[in-house]
UniProtKB/TrEMBL annotation:
It holds the Pfam family Plavaka. This is C2H2-type domain-containing protein. Residues 33-72 are annotated as: Disordered. It comes from the Eukaryota. Residues 41-51 have a biased composition (Basic and acidic residues).
Length: 768
């Protein structure tokens, strides 16, 4: 695809180069673009080129959106974050209708638009069009085509739709809702450039989260001393030691409101030349499984990204922004009343955890970011030379505390503990905060899911992959050790995903971490430029267990659902902006998306009727008396697996049934687990009452009471003495066939053929 400049007729092969060129041409030339014949029914207020050079200046005021209207009728805009997040939970059967060759849309009000503020659309057609356009991210060109199509075929004297989509977007931009207010504040000025913080009021964000109907279900209010078999159990945040300490510090009858923040700089485009720094909020009172949903989070704001060489100025700007964001809870000396489950509850908000990548965690703690720092860990004062030491004692791991770090700063000895010469805002808070870095981060260019999927099968790739050290390579890692390393990784990872931990689980987890880390360092220390002196490795080995005891299971602090929010709060809004002064435009797009979702929630969704399990396709149908003739006719047109199924069909059915009228067959080649009852399991070696087989055919037997059956070729354990290898069942495929009831199939499994071996298989237990 190529892009032709309408001003000088120059042709570009890339959209980015074309856009840059047009911006320069616009400085010297004004152009009028003729209307397309298909758009004769739509009024063009200005060409997109002209609009680009006449951007609205409505955001030059100190408030991006100011709303003093407290009489919102018929609608209540509850939550920006929840509204946008709910978009991801809906079906998306349409692809985004985006044309990369089209000029970026610009949100300028049409010249003849009535800018009177409102809270309702003029009519249902107007509303439904905007819901459609916003939900599926349809651009201006596609939206105007929809309007033209509707006007052409509706046969209405007067169209209920706007003249063009720009008018409708401007209409939504002027809609006012009492609890949608983004503000901006000047944080710093550097080299004649102003750096603003765009944000929502923290208390309003909290209220927005609490207005989501399902959020207050199972909303925890008090510390729970959960024990089982005389062991402490840690799952939700309110079972951790931090909650207990905080609750004891509050006035009697008040409740703790736990605030969790997530901060992450993200790129707006693939090339990474433009960045934004969103910060999100959720509540630790929400159960983990619900807190990990996107609708349980809110966009708190966009932090300024300072372009400066002065590190102190950058850190000072960052902490000034944090102070401004969190100032509302600092000022709440007497707490706050919030409406929970139909009654007012007295809360004291406290920031419990901040989730961030390692460089950002250093920014929060003001620890030197360089891995070459003498004391690079933001949690403790471990020396760099001990980062790869798996056998440190308790005395070697001295925690950084607010009070201690503040003393170093006030005594002007901050360099001795490797912290920046900037006052840390969090030192002023009357409570301790933990920073949870993304310990198990993904490889560049891989998503977390892709990375986990890679690790789940890697052990089977490595197994039996290469021979011994015949070439006498230095620091050679033998194949068995490498395979064991991946086995230990998988064991450790599975433990890390536990939803709750007893003290014995934590001991087992700690042992698994040290076992993996010891072998990891042994295998790769000599091929690492730093000899594996990695702060993340140290933090995982020495700080993760204490984090669980203090704040609950770590699967409540996964970064994946937060990272997915970038799509709705950064990338999509940026994509449909004009790429200039983007933050105000992003907030307009977020507002329109939120309004659309909020309005659509008022529609009644028809309930889906559950369907019973049925065969999705009928491949063959024949009667029993014609079975052999039918199989002979088909055998040359089917593959080996189906031929095997045909060959075993009659004998296996004879052993299963005495009377047959007819049957339907479909093909389904899958490896499956079959549940064995307690009596059957005594006759076989099973894996916790599961046996494994390969389904060759599925058959529907047409008797008076139709039966659904599966023809199975069975796997057996390769060795009766050692049935497991790398923690996985080690199998072989045998010449034993049976029909089983489909109801006894436990599920589809992942079978891996062992590399360079004949008839040896693993059941991949790491797929979960």
């Amino acid at each position: 695809m190529s892009f032709k400049c309408p001003l000088c007729m120059r042709i570009f092969s890339q959209c980015f180069a074309y856009t840059q060129h047009v911006q320069k041409c616009l400085k010297n030339v004004e152009v009028e673009v003729e209307e397309d014949d298909d758009n004769n029914d739509s009024e063009k207020y200005s060409s997109e080129m002209d609009t680009r050079s006449n951007l609205s200046s409505e955001y030059e005021n100190n408030k991006v959106e100011v709303d003093d209207d407290n009489d919102v009728q018929n609608m209540s805009f509850d939550s920006i974050g929840s509204a946008i997040s709910e978009m991801s939970l809906e079906d998306s059967n349409f692809e985004n209708i985006l044309d990369s060759s089209e000029e970026p849309e610009i949100f300028e009000e049409p010249k003849n638009l009535n800018t009177k503020t409102c809270t309702e659309f003029p009519n249902d057609a107007y509303k439904d069009l905007m819901l459609l356009v916003t939900k599926y991210k349809i651009n201006n060109k596609g939206s105007n085509k929809i309007i033209h199509f509707f006007n052409k075929h509706s046969n209405l004297i007067e169209s209920p739709l706007p003249k063009n989509i720009e008018q409708e977007r401007a209409f939504m931009n002027n809609m006012k809702f009492s609890n949608l207010e983004f503000s901006k504040v000047l944080i710093t000025k550097h080299e004649d450039k102003d750096y603003f913080l765009y944000y929502q009021n923290l208390i309003q964000c909290i209220k927005n989260i609490l207005t989501i109907p399902v959020i207050t279900q199972n909303f925890v209010l008090s510390y729970e001393n959960y024990e089982y078999n005389r062991e402490s159990i840690y799952n939700e945040q309110n079972t951790g030691k931090w909650w207990k300490i905080m609750q004891e510090s509050l006035p009697t009858s008040s409740k703790l409101l736990s605030i969790i923040l997530y901060s992450d700089v993200t790129t707006t485009v693939t090339l990474g030349k433009s960045q934004l720094h969103p910060i999100y909020i959720t509540l630790g009172n929400i159960p983990i499984w619900r807190r990990n949903k996107q609708y349980a989070k809110q966009l708190l704001g966009y932090l300024p990204i300072l372009e400066a060489a002065n590190k102190d100025l950058i850190h000072d700007t960052f902490h000034k922004s944090l102070r401004h964001l969190l100032e509302p809870i600092i000022l709440l000396k007497d707490g706050i009343d919030l409406f929970i489950n139909n009654e007012n509850t007295w809360f004291y908000p406290r920031v419990s955890t901040i989730i961030a990548d390692w460089p950002e965690a250093a920014s929060f703690c003001l620890v030197y970011k360089s891995f070459n720092s003498n004391l690079p860990c933001h949690s403790c004062l471990v020396k760099r030379e001990n980062l790869a030491n798996i056998d440190l004692s308790v005395n070697d791991v001295i925690l950084r505390t607010h009070d201690e770090m503040r003393k170093y700063f006030e005594n002007d000895t901050q360099r001795s503990v490797c912290i920046e010469s900037v006052h840390n805002f969090f030192w002023d808070l009357p409570f301790r905060i933990i920073l949870l870095s993304n310990y198990l981060h993904s490889i560049a260019r891989l998503t977390a899911n892709e990375y986990r999927s890679l690790m789940k099968i890697m052990i089977f790739v490595i197994d039996n992959l290469y021979d011994e050290n015949n070439n006498e390579v230095d620091n050679f890692v033998n194949n068995d050790d490498l395979t064991k390393l991946y086995e230990y990784w998988n064991e450790m990872y599975i433990l890390s995903r536990y939803e709750e931990f007893s003290e014995s689980d934590l001991e087992k987890f700690n042992d698994a971490i040290h076992r993996w880390a010891w072998m990891f360092v042994k295998a790769f220390k000599f091929v690492s430029p730093s000899n594996l002196k990695l702060p993340k490795l140290h933090s995982w080995v020495y700080h993760i267990i204490d984090s669980i005891r203090s704040y609950g299971a770590i699967n409540g602090y996964t970064t994946e659902t937060y990272e997915s929010l970038h799509k709705y709060f950064v990338k999509i809004p940026y994509q449909i902006s004009n790429k200039k002064d983007v933050k105000p435009q992003l907030l307009q797009t977020i507002k329109r998306q939120a309004i659309s979702i909020r309005i659509s929630q008022h529609s009644v969704n028809s309930a889906k009727t559950p369907r019973t399990c049925k065969f999705s396709a009928r491949l063959f149908e024949f009667s029993l008396q014609d079975a052999n003739t039918f199989f002979n006719e088909k055998k040359d047109s089917v593959d080996n697996k189906m031929q095997t199924g045909f060959a075993r069909f009659i004998s296996c059915l004879d052993s299963y049934l005495d009377l047959l009228d007819g049957f339907t067959i479909i093909v389904w080649f899958s490896d499956i687990a079959i549940s064995m009852d307690s009596e059957e399991s005594n006759d076989y070696i099973s894996d916790k009452e599961l046996c494994y087989g390969q389904a060759l055919l599925l058959a529907e037997v047409l008797t008076n009471s139709p039966l659904n059956l599966a023809l199975i070729q069975w796997y057996d354990f390769k060795s009766k003495r050692n049935p497991y290898l790398y923690g996985c069942p080690h199998l072989k495929l045998i010449e034993l066939y049976n029909f089983v009831a489909i109801e006894s199939i436990h599920g589809v499994i992942h079978i891996v053929l062992r590399f360079d071996k004949q008839n040896e298989y693993f059941v991949n237990k790491y797929i979960f």
